[in-house]
Amino acid sequence: MDDLELGEQTIQEANILIVDDVIANLIVLTEMIRKSGYVARPVTSVKQATQAIEATLPQLILLDISMPDMDGFEWCERLKKDAKTRDIPIIFISAMNSTEDKIRGFNLGAVDFISKPFEHEEVSLRISTHLKIHRMQQELEMYNQKLQKLVKEQMEKIETEEKNLIYAMARMCEARDKVRENHIENIGKNSRLLAMSLHFSGLYEAEISQDYIDTIELASALHDIGKIFIPDNILQKKGKLTIDEEKILESHTELGAKNLSEAYAQSEYNDFLKMAIDIAKYHHEKYDGTGYPMGLRGKEIPLSARIVTVVNMYDNLLRDYADKGEGAHIEALQRMKLEANHSLDPDIIEIFLKIQRQLKR
Known about the structure:
By secondary structure, this protein is an alpha/beta fold.
């Protein structure tokens, strides 16, 4: 059975709630609805109607305006405010036929009016029309949900492929630099954790959003992407570098930013690339202005770079103090405390120390 046939079957099996305190009207409408092939559910009050809805949701409601316990307008308004019943089509039935009543009814969410006395063909036609419209709206909503799910799955697939490509590029640098295993993953996870903690601390609530947190985890992986352009004899040298070699090594910040900028020029609305550029270029800047390549000071350094500078120093210190075993973590934190207001942003260090037990290492 195809969707069209299923829709027609659903319409023919539709149950219609009739709410009218006049018994004669209920009898007439019930007979008309049954002859049209639908299930009629007559009730004489809003109280009974509410109980009927709790038992089984109707596909359509015929609602009298003038009733003793609560008028139809008020009950319609309540139904439209309830998520469970707001999509049920409501047709007002009334001897009142003024333009003001109709406008009020439509404003409250009714889909139509049927005036008394009732004509079978008119009642049948209006009910059939609105049941079909309601069914089409439901099918459209189901289609939209399926479409949104499909788009989301495709976007997640693309995002996963992009992440894999970015991490592959970052690991190329990691392999050449012979840095400690899992350095990139540690930087990403700890940058995310620190950014999230800064947001919740209230210090950077306006600057750090959920998108920012997701972005910095990925963008931080490219902080040393510029090292791919540094010769092996400098990058892998075991002894102390000469002054000239130091300058060449330091150029990895600008080389990385330059190459990322060329990609950004083709996609200037890409927040990920913009943050990756800032991190690659400025993650060796120091809070007191003695860093490189620009000698930026304090808040002149982009926030993303200040965050990565902290987690990068922590991970590098763990490598330097690896021979101390479990004591490496304590030694690294002690050293970083001394760097507050020098290499590191003191506000960020304060939050970093509060979350130090949760850090990936």
